[in-house]
Amino acid sequence: MFGIGKRDSTLLIIVAIMALFAPFILNPFPTGSAMAQFNAGYPDLMQRFVIFGIFAIGFNLLFGLTGYLSFGHAAFLGIGSYAVVWMYKLLDYNVIPGLFLAVIVSAIFALAIGFISLRRSGIYFSILTLAFAQMMFAISYSDLIGRFLGTTITNGETGLQVYTSDPQILIDDWESVPHLLGIVEMRSTYTLDAGAWSFDFNAGYYFCAVILLIMFYLAIRIFRSPFGMMLRAVKSNQQRMNYTGLNTRPYTLAAFVISGMYAGLAGGLLASMDPLAGAERMQWTASGEVVLMTILGGAGTLIGPVLGAGFIKYFENIFAKINDNVLHSWFAILPDGMEDFMVTIVHPFVGKGWNLTLGLLFMLVVIFLPGGLVEGGQRIGRVFRRRDRNAGSVEADAAKQRNPAAE
Amino acid sequence: MDAILLQILNGLDKGSAYALIALGLTLIFGTLGVVNFAHGALFMLGAFCAVTVQKLLSLSTITLDETQKDFLGRPLEIKTPYVESWFGPETGSLIIDWSVPLAILFAIPVMLFIGYVMERGLIKHFYKRPHADQILVTFGLAIVLQEIIKYFYGANPIPTPAPSAFVGSFDFAPLLGLDTSLAYPYWRLVYFGFSTLIIGAVFAFLQFTTFGMVVRAGMADRETVGLLGIDIDKRFSIMFGIAAAVAGLAGVMYAPINSPNYHMGMDFLVLSFVVVVVGGMGSLPGAVLAGFMLGILESLASLNEVKAVLPGIDQIIIYVVAIVILLTRPRGLMGRKGVMEE
Known about the structure:
The structure holds 2 protein chains of 2 kinds.
Chain A: H1 6-20, H2 22-25, H3 43-66, H4 74-90, H5 95-117, H6 122-141, H7 144-149, E1 160-161, E2 179-180, E3 184-185, E4 189-194, E5 197-202, H8 203-224, H9 226-236, H10 238-243, H11 249-273, E6 276-277, H12 284-297, H13 304-321, H14 324-330, H15 336-346, H16 354-368, H17 372-391, H18 394-402
Helix pairs in contact in A: 1-8, 3-8, 3-11, 3-12, 3-13, 4-5, 4-11, 5-6, 5-11, 8-9, 12-13
Chain B: H1 2-32, H2 39-57, E1 60-69, E2 75-81, H3 82-87, H4 89-97, H5 99-121, H6 131-153, E3 169-171, H7 173-176, E4 183-185, H8 186-208, H9 210-220, H10 222-227, H11 232-254, H12 264-279, H13 284-301, H14 304-309, H15 313-328
Antiparallel strand pairs in B: 1-2, 3-4
Helix pairs in contact in B: 1-8, 1-11, 1-12, 1-13, 2-5, 2-6, 2-11, 2-12, 5-11, 8-9, 8-11, 9-11, 12-13, 12-15, 13-15
């Protein structure tokens, strides 16, 4: 289907179904029940799932395929956001021109940054991209270019937003929030009440989800193309590639620009959902977060980054909401002393302490599961398969012993 | 002229901090070949050693004085620090006043221990893993350390004053025969002196002791040193402890200059990496030189005359310089061929 293999088509269809029915899947608990706080089916969070999914897919195209670890990808996220808000300010609240501009501008920046950073590899590359991203953060946080030119470009620490005094040359009377070509407003939500459950269908979410599917499809094509093969060859042995007389730089640069464009698009979508752009989106912790998403899900795999992004954003939102009252209600079945003890133990890891859990998770994944969730799933799958075989035929085992390479 | 001199002086203390952190980073990198993103967190832990010592020394007994009332009409609480009741009020208050220098004695064993445990418990398992994994695991560790400190000490900066003997500033102007004033805080002078002392000590240790000689040999050719029957790994993990202690001491003494908060390590880390890269990966003199150079450049760029031409240049000058240097001298200022060439 669409020129991709059978397995990839299945994967794409699964992702499409998940994205389509996300409002149902993410809201398994009835509203008002004690478990309702684990529901993730509200528009804001669902939008984040797909937007950061796009961001992580793009990052994976660079890190997963070429092995170049960029520590400055959040810079492109910020650039994308600024581009979209600027289009709101100049034209109107239609998101399409802004998204195009976001992709183009981030591609230009990625080209410049990649051109310089890719002269070095390994940690030098990581540090160079980190330095560039911090520089961009400093520039936009204090609006240095704006001050230099005597105007406003990023509006400093306040963040860029739309004011009524802006030109907005295409604006119509009814426009006050981001919309898609005047057809539908991003914030419009249809709520379906079914018994004790209620499901939100948000226009912005479905817009992002469609883009996610397109981007996921593109990523599959890149993974399976000769270009993707070349990038993987760079990862496994760049020296050998050079010896065969091949200049790898154009390939890595192309990968860097493509992943920068993905990041710019994700940043643009963030501003499409909420017409604001701030410098904090560029901070290096944000770059670290996308690295974590990719690693956690499984770098170099197709579905991994999406899983990782969903996992982190989900737990970030849910964990941050858990406070001591919630903990007490959980451990209420235990005897009093035990209850307080458990609450004291868990307390540092939830609510404001979510970052501690994140850091620990980061370390545990890198130490024990370098292949991420995807590898974890495969390992579990293998254990089950082996058990089946043990229960089943002795012949398979014998065959395995004769030819261990067949595994 | 005097403005420029003042900025150079101002750059010295920041440069000292950069140089000390970068020195530790380079030591770890040159010996163990590990990129330590948690090094900033070690600097931060050092600063919180100073905070801890100060808090411990100020632990007080509370007695109620019924004769006096506070503004709510309750009996006035009189706090007497334990050290004052042990050593008498004068010696006691003197000890509290000098808590930051005293914290050095506390920080050295603590940081050596933390560094050693970190190396044996975590970093050791990452020598054979790719650099990306090393970066990621130490980045995770940095987040964890930072959050632990935040949990115990809160998110706000904690003021940690220097001994009152060092309050005030020294006027350089008469010394240089200038008629304007050129005031420079005493503590910053102390910090500069202290860091040159530490840098000197580290270099002397590497240059003039047998242990240092073996370590230098191991940095140059680890395999041969191993073949000579020397347990180089053990020495390298001690070097990790020493690098941690250097970062910790930089943090202890920096506490009075900037009130410690839990993310100060991250703020310094990015710049220290830039310093290491500019100085040349694996080159100790390069790290020190680049540290001071970039510190001074940063303060020179914050001169009003410079800012009038290029607003905000002080915030990005370090990155610009780093990019230019990496493009013109890819190995950094003093990097040698063959060290970290991938």
